[in-house]
Design a protein that fits this description.
Blueprint (H helix, E strand, L loop, with lengths): L4 H13 L1 H4 L1 H6 L1 H15 L9 H22 L8 H12 L4 H23 L4 H52 L8 H9 L7 E10 L8 H14 L6 E7 L2 E9 L12 H9 L6 E5 L9 H14 L6 E3 L5 H14 L5 H11 L3 H11 L4 H8 L3 H15 L6 H14 L2
Parallel strand pairs: 4-5
Antiparallel strand pairs: 1-3, 1-4, 2-3
Amino acid sequence: MPEHAALRQSLARLRRLGAIPGIAPALKRAMPRAGRALRKAVIAEVPTLAAGAEPGVRAERDRHAGEHLKEVQRLFAGGEVAGFEFVRAHARLRSEQRFPLEAMLHAYRCGHQVLSRWMRAAVATLGAERREQAVSAVSDLGIEYTNAISAVLTAEYVAHTRQMAQAEGDRRADTLNALLNPEGGVDGHDAQLLKRAGYLEPNQAFCVVVAQSTDPLEMNSVPRVQRIVEAMSSAVTSEKIKALIGVRNNVVTAVYADWQRQSGWTAPRASLADRVERMLLILGPAVLIGVSREHGSVALVPKAMQEAIAALGCAHVGERVVKFGALPMRRLLLVRGGDYVRAALPPWVADFATADAKARGALVETLRAYADADMNLIRAARVLHVHPNTLYARMQRINQLTGLNSQRYHDLNELLLAVDCQGV
């Protein structure tokens, strides 16, 4: 079916009635008045296009209204239906301006009434025998013309918006990759990207955040990942903090940047990592987040990325947002070296794990309580609500299973490291 078939049929009917090209001169004479009426109607009904709008928006509004009047007059002068390129150009411009599509469609609906009155007034110049049919025909034409331009506008606006979003997504992905380049390269293409994005300006602080769902399989769902990206974008609400968010290595990755304190005269404030951490606490319990320390150079962003990943490895449902700078050394060692140690655990670990399972976790509980009590057996027994002799018996059992003396500092530390690495 030919494009704009209904509009072509309406024009063919008007040709048969003699309205085309019969009323074209009358339309041309009344065009200035119709232009003023069209402008007045749009201003009254569409606030975003009213007199208070930006000068560029007002100028484009008036220019585009004139283009529609000229197009209608051209059609009545005998011209053929073309591709409405002026509508497509208007749609692309408004898309780049982030102008709302609904406002433009509403302006077209308001314009339909003015165009119909303009055409009906011109029909009055026809002979009486054709006037009644021509009035009906121009009413149909007004409807079909508005439908056609609305369809063209919507299709072009949506297509151009998607194209811009794709280009913006590609640009942001390239910039994110340049920032997270493990070699810290800031030459050539990467340097140009970072410079245009403002990341090579001096006196900036950087913080990297990585996030994933508590269920890693959900990261295979594009809608789920997109919701995490949107949540992280909306959570950091400070206008001063610049955010670059994308997906890298199957985790949502964000680089936040802000200006550092300039001098002793500048008011002190919390570090960027602390501020970002507080903002991200509003995210729901289904997301785990790792936050790096604050770094004062773009060259250290890859290092911040590794810190954020390490912090994410420590996050769990009970502690959803973990900041690298707040992690104790022992916990960091377990996260970074746990896999290596698990491959070389001493042979007694398996027997100890079996015995602890039979004791319903009492052996591990005893070791942790004894360490927390600074190796004070009486205090540990009080915390566990057991008799000191019971606690002593458990420790003897641990010594038999492992060959280590749990009442000695170094042996106790060895036992706890093994327990933590094994996940007993």
